[in-house]
Amino acid sequence: MSTARAKLVIRKQIVRSFKKQQLTLQADAMTFLEDTLEAQNVPPEDLNDTLDNIVSGYVAREGLSLVSRARLEIVLESMQKWTHHLHEKPTRNTLDPHKSQQVLSQSTNYSSSQHNYQHSQQRPNPEDLESIDMDSMRDRIHEMEGEQRMGERRQYDDDDLFMEGTHDGMSQMEGFADDDADDVDITEMLHVIDAFSMPRWRWASDIKTFTRADSSASANPRESDAQRNGSTRAATTSNTNHVLGQAEEKTAMFRARYHVLLQRIMRNECFAPPVFTGGMEQDRYLKLTPLKALKGRCGERFLMFGMLVQMGDGKYCLEDADDRVELIMDHSQNSAGLFTENCFVLVEGQYTDDNVIIVETIGLPPPELRDETKKVFGNIDFLGAPREMRSEEQLKVIAQEYEDISFVILSDIWLDQPKTFATLRTIFEGYSNSTLPLAFIMCGSFKSQPFLYNGLESGQYRDGFNALAELIAEFPTMATFSYFIFVPGPNDPWGASILPRPKIPDFYTAKIRSLVKRSIFASNPCRIKYCDQEIVIFREDILNRLLRNCIVPPCGDVVIQKQLVRTIIDGAHLCPLPLTTRQVSWAHDHALRIYPIPDALILADKFEAYNFKYQNCHCMNPGSFPTSDYSWMVYYPASRRSDICQIPKPVR
Length: 652
Prior knowledge:
Layout: H1 4-20, E1 24-25, H2 27-39, H3 44-61, E2 66-67, H4 69-78, E3 91-92, E4 100-101, E5 109-112, E6 115-118, H5 134-151, H6 167-182, E7 190-194, E8 201-204, E9 209-212, H7 215-219, H8 221-228, H9 249-266, E10 301-310, E11 316-319, E12 324-328, E13 333-334, E14 344-351, E15 356-363, H10 370-377, H11 392-401, E16 407-411, H12 418-432, E17 439-443, H13 455-473, H14 476-481, E18 483-487, E19 498-499, H15 506-515, E20 519-521, E21 526-530, E22 533-539, H16 542-548, H17 560-570, E23 583-584, E24 600-604, E25 610-614, E26 617-621, E27 631-636, E28 641-646
Parallel strand pairs: 1-2, 12-15, 13-15, 16-17, 17-18, 18-20, 19-23, 22-24, 24-26
Antiparallel strand pairs: 3-4, 5-6, 7-21, 8-9, 10-11, 10-14, 11-12, 14-15, 16-27, 21-22, 25-26, 27-28
Helix pairs in contact: 1-2, 1-3, 4-5, 13-15
Domain DNA polymerase alpha/delta/epsilon subunit B: 407-609
Subcellular location: Nucleus
Protein name: DNA polymerase epsilon subunit B
């Protein structure tokens, strides 16, 4: 591998192998690994297996996302028994493709960067590396990193995947990027993020930014790192994640919602005080008054922000982080939105001698465009998706170039109804004879009646997924190249009535996972990261629940679907309902947060289908598949539009 083209192939494969584990290579580590592989004359067909072995060993030993040359050398030295496989292909075990058997061969030595690596005859399990003396290894790492810093010409940022220190290296990397852009695998641009794997961020008022608050990471760091650096397309639920969480997390949940909205309000231009106040009237901007500042100011009008709560005597109050005050809403005028208990609102009214507020106007907090949020918190990964090598601009160009990419969205796929399979067969035949969708998003419920926990129901439920697997397998191209994303609904097992709901248990989906290559069973809600777009999927009959629990009547001059979307997006939460009506896991409430505003929002509801834009977010509801005469929705991310589709009825 002495030609420039061969070196480019090696570099691309190195980047892809480490990217799968979300690892960042420094430039000197990249050069060292290139030289090592080139010195060993690794055949092209063995390059992928060799790099997978090295990456697995690094993750088992270090687990750090930033790979330096010193750490890589130490890990390779600790993997002495692996170095034999750098130049000889392992023999695959036909029973387990992940295990391999190595034929005996003689030991050889090779020298690289003042280190000799001895070859042996068999490959160890990465877990065997636990027996190595960690103290001596850490001392060695720090020693080598100190020497390395002395000769470095520049510092490399943690966010850089890799950079070359010379102009020749930079030009080579530009050529690599151009060559890679022509070979984009669009299927690798899609990632499904489970609700239980999303990072948890809390607002820190003292430093005016978000800080990471992952309890699972502190409970089991090794398991959390493994999950964060996993190569699976959809993250799974960790054993350290508890459904309910600690007792103090209930109050922390509402406090987190409050601070997320409050910091957004205070950055709004209508609430921002002028920098230069000379000659300007004080009423030129809106001023929020904390509830604790109302004492002794009877007869004055105030604008307040807080959460609507109902007391034991049935009276409603407004509550913020420090105090609460009773509300009288007999003659209030409300803006568009559905106001329920536990939702956060702006209230304008007069404070009386009886320590109550006579409400004049009630409304939702002002929204903030996604682009504006990214300008302020662009360095914070709210989603938790795998890090992309390309910039947001490059990803946006890729998404626009693939104009035919589409997502087929269906809700209420009742697998216990024969007509469902007949209709799905017709849909699959139509798409298999035309352009294949990138993904089929199938939302539950996958059963027409609530699931009963007995042996008979379990067998029938599993048979429904087995029949669906056999149906999809009849279309080999679709079963191989299209993603099938399954989101549980109200009638599916299990998770009771608590949000977010975990994925459907593997016991029921074994066959479909074996026959459909890219089947993903996600939580409810879940999110999709496609190129530069974030798509939120939520299966819940939320509209009827909100209407039944409204405190004040909805505004009559706005379409009810738009009021629903405005309530969710302006309130930055998928389920602004009281906990007595819809239980939410305290520890995972952040997974229901709509902040920043996504590019697309799928609210799979039994209500009639709709699609429109609000605050540059494309909002859509495919409707119920069986009750809407078997209609579905198709979303085109390149143009950010959607269409309601239906099988044409035969003409008599």
